[in-house]
Amino acid sequence: MYCKNCGNEINQNAVVCIHCGCAVEQQKPATEAQKTNVLGIIGFVLAFIVPLAGLICSIIGYKRADRDYNGNCKGLALAGTIISAISLAISVAVAIWGIASWIVLWTTITAPLY
Ligand SMILES: [Zn+2]
């Protein structure tokens, strides 16, 4: 490996550069560099089960994808966000439609009483 400060070749396990005395940054293992964006995956799965929870997890997972996970699962988190949003919109629409139908039905049944 080479020193980042002076560019001279130094020992792989060196902690301090023998040429300039600068502290050498230890290279992180490849496995640690690419962490799995768990929240993005959870958000995507939850999108199909609990849309609201899926939406929250996906948004957080998407925001963290670039910052903490080197872009890992960014697409999945984005897909989870979209699916959750659509599911939530459908749920809300169905709920409103259900309440509206119930009010119409209720007023129809009770109407003759007035
Ligand atoms: Zn050096």
Question: In words, what does this structure look like?
Answer:
The N and C termini lie far apart (90 Å). 63% of the residues lie in helices and 0% in strands. It folds into two domains: 1-30, no CATH class; 34-113. 22% of the residues are buried. With 114 residues, it is mostly helical. Helix 2 packs parallel to helix 4 and helix 3 (51-69) runs antiparallel to helix 4. The structure holds zinc ion. Residues 3, 5-6, 8, 17, 19-20, 22 line the site of zinc ion.
List keywords for this structure.
mainly alpha; 114 residues
Task: Encode the helix/strand succession as letters.
Answer: HHHH
Number of helices: 4
Bound molecules: zinc ion
Distance between the termini: 90 Å
Number of domains: 2
Task: Please state roughly what percent of the residues sit in beta strands, choosing from under 5%, 5-15%, 15-25%, 25-35%, 35-45% or over 45%.
Answer: under 5%
Structural class: mainly alpha
Mean pLDDT: 87
pLDDT below 50 for ≥5 consecutive residues: which ranges?
Answer: none
- Extended strand count: 0
Helix content: 55-70%
Indicate the overall shape: rod-shaped
* Major sheet size, sense and barrel closure: none
Q: Taking Cα atoms only, what radius of gyration do you get, to the nearest Å?
A: 27 Å
